[in-house]
Amino acid sequence: MNRFLKNALAFFFFSELCVHAFAFSAKDIISPREGEWNNIQALVLNNTKDAEIYYSLSGSDPLESGFSYDGPVVIDQKGIVKVRITAISDNGKNRQDFTVEYSVCDAPQTGSKQVKYFVDFICKNPVIRYTSGTSMNILPAELFGNQPFFVRSDNIADYYVPFSCSNGNAKLNFVVHVVPDSKYLANKVDLKLPFVINDWEYFSFTDNKFIFKIDDSPEWEFGSDVRKLDRSVPHIISWQSVDYKIGNEIFTYELKAKPSVSVSPMEDKRILSVYIDEFNSYSADCFEGSAVSGILKVPYFSDGVLLGTVDCEYFVDKKAPAAPVVESTAENFFSRKKVSVVIKAADEDTKKIKFFVSKPVSCSSSEESFSQCKIPEEEIVYSEYDGRNIVLKSVDRETTFYYIKAVSEDEFGNTGNTAEYSVIVDECNYYLCEKDVPQDKLSEYDGSYTHPFANFDQALEYINSSEDTTLHVVGNIKIKNGAKTIRSNCRISGMDNIITFEPGASVRIENGAKVSFENMIFENDSSAEEEKDTSLFVVNSAILNLTGCEISAQFAKNGIIFDCEKSGISFSDCGFTVQANSYACAVLANRTDINCTACRFMSLASTAVCLSAQSVNCRIEKSSFSTAGDFCRGAEFNESKFESIDNVFDNVPQEKKSMYESVHLDDESFKVQ
User: What pLDDT was estimated at residue 68?
Assistant: First the structure.
């Protein structure tokens, strides 16, 4: 390889990142970084064309006792190191100062054999040289994952990339110097010429065995004088043996005009195509997760000869934009109201956001349910986000889980880390688990799955302040003394939990409320002797439904389980037992619609009645009625309509027909079979 070619290639390989304006800033300090490190550091700067850079390693003024920066410097110092950097513009009028302070201590020898080798290597060599097109196997997967650090073999960009890592013990900061592959370029050279071209315009003939002429010059010349050529047009260089005679072989070479370079995105637009012609095409590439820019020195080969390099600016971006930000009206993972979500870009590099919202999934109101409701990756299909609010609400009164995943994308096609958001929306379901809670702490128990209401009175307050509520009962609870009034629609569900009415306690349902009880066991505390008449449930102008419930009530004198007025009641698969000394009635109804299926009624008292109805429409199917006492009636109807299907009433002995009656209907009532 001739001297010109060696010099040209060397010059090409030493290209640096730079900018055209005097704008040296902190981001141009590639290394060192502030912090505590376990390896010596290197001073690596993104130098500018029109600024002189000076530095000191002792904290002193670089212009007074520092050094001129002309390339990376290994700072072989430990302990606290204070690096000062000063940038001066060409005219000397502008000055910018920066300080980087960091500390270095010895690295602990821990980790795998590969990690120990890597730590030891970096502690001695804070700058790693990487040749384009090769594998950088020195970076252990234990620290950097399985992501390949690779740059295309035809990359001609020369730059520095900062890296930092930690294995929980050693904390390292170092720089990777990416250089083009000299072998890749050397393979393009296969012809030696007796002349050289410097800076495109300056020609000198270097072989004194030949004479030469340029273009149509009438005279042959000898010597190595430098002359300037117009490189906007091609030239013909001719030469022959210095022993001039007719018949000498004359050699020619067309020195082509200086070409122009086009830079455009490749199919993967994160990589640049650097194109002169079909024989001079390259790329500018960088590692995943990084971005580089500067001036490329693009080599131009013609007929196997390097004619020079052409400068062009470049910018390669494989740095992922920041993950988008998901903003929600919910304060945490659980919301009592419908949730409004917006997704916003986290940085200016984001050009669009893609997102996925799962279909609503029914679940329990627990944070643990997140793992159970995670959406399989293969079901996630992204759509472009248009900036509108995403409204998440509970479906069919169920506790509903939603999962959102969003990713940012920049103009080059880089996608960042995903933002994930999960929420449980439950506008209806509340939880009750009785426990002894101080009054000043009661507000912390909001009826959620993780913080259920602590007593029935607290739950009742929320029920009456809502339009439609489902209350899930966990464990046994007590209804305290006094009437507890339900005025709003609600569904109270349990798992055969025992609800105990304390003496004097009752539940009133009114104001048109629709109330359901499911899978509950009710009983009253009969330890206190009360002479006044008592009803456990008073239903006035409301709707009451019971499913799968069992009620057992004992009263000192007179007692009724359900006292209903101008209402609608429905029982399914329930059992009712009422006992009193004087009068016991399971259901007392006036101007009320009654529907009963597969239920059991038992009344025990001096006067025992299972169902006493005035002006009602009543339909009873597949139910049984039992009574015991001095005067008993399974059911009695006044001015009512009674439909009976496959029901069973007590068989009453013939001699006691006057005091025992299975079903009594007055003259204004009628029975439908």
Answer: 93
- Over the stretch 573-624, which tens digit does the pLDDT of each residue have? 999 999 999 999 999 999 999 999 999 999 999 999 999 999 999 999 999 9
For position 18, what pLDDT does the model report? 34
Q: What are phi and psi of 134, to 5 degrees?
A: -105, 170
| CA dist., res. 491 & res. 469, Å (int) | 6
Most confident of 360-369, 481-490, 649-658: 481-490
Side-chain-side CA neighbours of 261 within 13 Å: the count stands at 23
- Beta-bridge mates of residue 119: none
pTM over 0.85: no
**How far apart, in whole angstroms, are the C-alpha atoms of residue 385 and residue 398?**
27
Beta-carbon-side half-sphere exposure of residue 300 (alpha carbons within 13 Å):
21
Q: Report pLDDT digits (tens) over 202-250.
A: 999 999 999 999 999 999 999 889 999 999 999 999 999 998 788 889 9
* Average pLDDT value for the chain: 88
What residue ranges in 318-464 does DSSP mark as E strands? 325-328, 334-335, 339-344, 350-357, 361-362, 383-384, 390-392, 400-410, 419-425, 429-432
Cβ atoms of 276 and 264 within 8 Å: the answer is: no
Say which amino acid occupies 188: K
pLDDT at residue 533 tops 80: no
The alpha carbon of 415 is separated from its chain's Cα centroid by a whole number of angstroms, namely 14
- Count of beta carbons in the 10 Å neighbourhood of residue 582: 15
Tell me how far apart the alpha carbons of residues 469 and 316 are, in angstroms, rounded to a whole number: 57
Q: What share of the chain is helix, strand, coil (3-state, %, to 5)?
A: 10, 50, 40
| Residues 155, 179: Cα–Cα separation, whole Å | 8
Nearest Cα to Cα of residue 563 among 534, 536, 533, 588 = 588
Q: What is the edge-to-edge ordering of all strands in the sheet holding 272-277? A: 262-265, 272-277, 280-284
Token pair for 62: 């670089």
Q: Which residues contact 269 (CB under 8 A, 6 or more apart)?
A: 412, 413
Three-state SS annotation for 449-483: CCCCECCHHHHHHHHHHCCEEEEEECCCEEECCEE
Separation CA 670–CA 457 (nearest Å): 43
- Phi (first) and psi of residue 443, to 5 degrees: -65, -20
Rounded to 5°, the CA angle 619-625-631 comes to 115
Write the DSSP string, 59-127.
SS-HHHH-EE--S-EEE---EEEEEEEEEEETTS--EEEEEEEEEE-PPP--S-HHHHHHHHHHHH-SE
Of the candidates 315, 309, 293, 319, the one whose C-alpha atom is nearest the C-alpha of residue 18 is: 293
